[in-house]
Amino acid sequence: MLSNTCKTAIKAVIYLSGKSTNGEKVGIKEIAGHINASEHTLSKILQTLSKHGLINSVKGPSGGFFINEEQKNQPISNIVETIEGKDIFKECGLGLSKCSSAHPCPIHDEYKVVREMVEKIFREKKVKDLWDPVINGLAYLMD
Q1: Which of 17, 46, 73, 95 meets the CB 3.0–4.6 Å disulfide criterion with 131?
Q2: Would you say 30 and 63 are in contact if contact means Cβ atoms under 8 Å apart?
Q3: Is 0.85 topped by the overall pTM?
């Protein structure tokens, strides 16, 4: 359902959430190393997230990326919709453009249930909710 780009964006924002607790700014190299991502790809993703106000960036020698308290309270769905588009939680599981209840794809009914469950999780979970399990060793951001 989610592209690798979107998964990388979510992991990067979760990492920033933890690092920004002390007002720390983090560079691309550090983030990429902690989430096992390409620096080039991550740079483009973070620029997009910053442009949409989901994270912050400061240029210069003491610059980097960071996230404030308000941004830590945003739902994960903000990240998903910024990267994947607003219709991600309405799309057909097989990618058909005209899939509907009246004109369903072969997995329409089953996929609709799963899609709604995933949307619910991403709308209810806040960025800050996902950092605690990581810092406590109960969840991980890379293999």
Answers
A1: 17
A2: no
A3: yes
Instruction: Encode pLDDT of 38-67 as tens digits.
Output: 999 999 999 999 999 999 999 988 899 999
Q: What residue ranges define each of the domains in the chain, with the CATH number in brackets?
A: 4-135 (1.10.10.10)
pLDDT tens, residue by residue, 2-28: 999 999 999 999 999 998 877 789 999
Q: How far apart are CA 93 and CA 106, in angstroms?
A: 9
Tokens read off for 46:
């973070």
